[in-house]
UniProtKB/TrEMBL annotation:
It holds the Pfam family HGLS. Keywords: Dioxygenase, Iron, Oxidoreductase. Its EC number is 1.13.11.93. It comes from Rhodococcus erythropolis (strain PR4 / NBRC 100887). This is 2-oxoadipate dioxygenase/decarboxylase. Belongs to the 2-oxoadipate dioxygenase/decarboxylase family. It is an enzyme of class 1 (oxidoreductase). Residues 419-438 have a biased composition (Polar residues). InterPro entries: HGLS, YdcJ_bac-like.
Amino acid sequence: MVETWELRARFAAALAKMYGDEVPAYNTLVDVTMQVNRDFAAEHPDSAERLGSLARVSAERHGAIRLGTLDELRDVATVFGGFGMFPVGYYDLRLTDSPIPVVSTAFRPTDPAELARNPFRVFTSVLTGSDSRFFDTDLERRITGFLRRRTLFSPELLQWARQANREFGLPEPEATQFVEAATSAFRLGTDPIDAGWYRELAAISPVAADIAGQGSTHVNHLTPRVLDIDELYRRMTERGIIMIDRIQGPPRWNGPPLLLRQTSFRALAEDRRFRRPDGSVTTEPVRVRFGEVEARGIALTPSGRAIYDRLIARPENAEWGSEFPHTEDGLDDAGLAYFTYRNEGTVVVRDPIVYEDFLPASAAGIFASNLDSVTGFVSDAPGAEYGQDRLEGAIDRTIEDPFELYRAQQEASRALLSPANNHSRLQTLPPSNTEDSP
């Protein structure tokens, strides 16, 4: 029996190999990321593994895919469920400064032990095709008809996924077949794309064209984790790779890393085949896929997140050092971040909980920075409702609240403390090198 975590690890590795073959610059990004991580660990031996072992950070990835319908979301939830990945968080990218016609969730392990074994995540967006702020009635009808004619996930793939979810793994050869079928479902399509249809959608939103302009879906980016994202940005630029204009998320400051910082190299021109009205097929460049990289920090409580949201809304005048404590002790004492606690002799040791989720403003910023053209609402008509409850109804599963997952992890660790220990003897110590979990 190949256990769920190993299926997930195989799936992440297979996607990375496939994506590296499709987008060779991704391999360069991974190589530079690994170099930065090794150098950072050598220069900061006492703190480099504070937010996860080097082995975990080096293996860590998150992917991103885009789907066209809630039915496709239901099927992908089945597929990811077979890998022990479940929906966490709801993100409405229509409500950002650069409105994009999608709503999103992220599929990932929710158990800390499973995250430690393999923390693969996939940020999954769904086109809001009924939102009349982007699509008029005629275009909505044609989008719906086009998407109904395609099938992204085979019956065999869905069957293996259900079995893996039910049995917490698969025997061979089904395990290998499952991973291969799931990987193939996200391979870049090679069939010619209807040029007129693609351009009509792209005029509304390049993201809409990427989702509903072709008969398949694909990985949009696969993101490694880096320990020093500023150094990564510098080294990639030195190699002549064009990066987006800035690092998304909190700034670099003299306190503990918070939440999530992201950047990417600019989307590269990839040749795609287009069919003209006369039936001829031409090859033209399309820019929709890019190389994202992320640096993860400490998960913030709702109180901490409120401060973050306020500061990020006014980046020019934000004073992070005056709003957030400069130490983990201060963050914990103020109830601004999540930690776990463990007994070590007569002392209670505090460990930060890594932020495992996403920031909608950063996601939208990454999307927008990599598009040749950015469009927003094209109509002031009322937008269709694509709330969290509608997504949950489609997949017949609750979308987990990230704050609740972090809070439960923190409280579970407190419950295991020895009664003889108390927070007056609490210390902040780096984890041992043998621990993989943050």
